[in-house]
Specification:
The protein is an alpha+beta fold and about 350 residues long. It is built from 9 helices and 18 strands.
Amino acid sequence: MTRSLITISLSCLLAGGLLLPGCGGGDKETPRSSEVIKPAEVEPEASEPAEEPEAVAESEPAPTEEPKSEVVETPTEPEPTPEPEPEPEPEPETASTEPADTPEPAATEAEQPASEEGDAVPVSVSLGAAAGGTTFKGRVTVNGNATEPSSFTASKDPFCIALGELPEESLVLGENGGLGNVFVWLRKVPSGADVPEVPTEPVVLDNVKCNFQPHAFMLRVGQPMLVKNADDTAHNTRISPIRNNAFNQTIGPNDRKGVEVVYAQTELVPIKTQCDIHPWMGSFHFPVDHPWAAVTSEDGSFEITGLPAGDLEFRMWHERMGYVERSVKVTIGDGETAEQSFEVDAAKLAE
């Protein structure tokens, strides 16, 4: 009973001083009594729950809204955290695509001025002769004191002048008197000999550092030759054959595609290539109608393989003196190797 009276008195105080039934009087017909019927109806349920709604009512105006805003902000903060986590996942995908792109330039092993300087491979390897078998080999040396020409400085074209000292390759001397750049070839193919097919891979005549590369080489009749330019300046390439059509064309700077030249028939001797823009530039090459030919290396050695067996005749030629030997007759059995040495008088190599 005591707690009920306290609850009734609290209800009276909350009513703001209004006179209600059971609070010491008041008119039941007054409209104000209808506003207080709700708390009066809650009383029979329990006295403690009646206080709970009051606490909820007090927390709803301010605390209830604040936690809502805090609860909304809290989930939004973790959301950006998972987003950066998937970002590292595309990185491995990018790494996986990079290796796929890497082999493609390899098929470009292009961009490649430096590597393409090596396009002019030794022509004696690409003439189509079979390796081994019947072989003729030897060495050409100089008898006496021959002086290899010294390097020189270009006289025109800023690009060539900036290169400094340029090599003079008309006379190449190796150790122990070896003579380089001597052309050696089978004069005539024996009747009935099986001549290997002409290689389809082009030979390259390149303009590199204001010089022709290679300086001396052989190639087959019908084998394509590409005239290229690795320099950052133009070169005029003029070839003057005797039996074939002449070639005279300017090759633009850094032309790595090249201009094709194909010979229709063999020449009698090696033919010269010149550059009319840079007069010091010169080289020699020799189109032949079979693969049995070679150019001596710096030490003067040469080797011709896959020859037809029997009685053979060879010729030898150098740009400083013309014929080194007009006729070298050799008899070689099938699968055998014939070897000879040759000497050149140093006086005949002087310019």
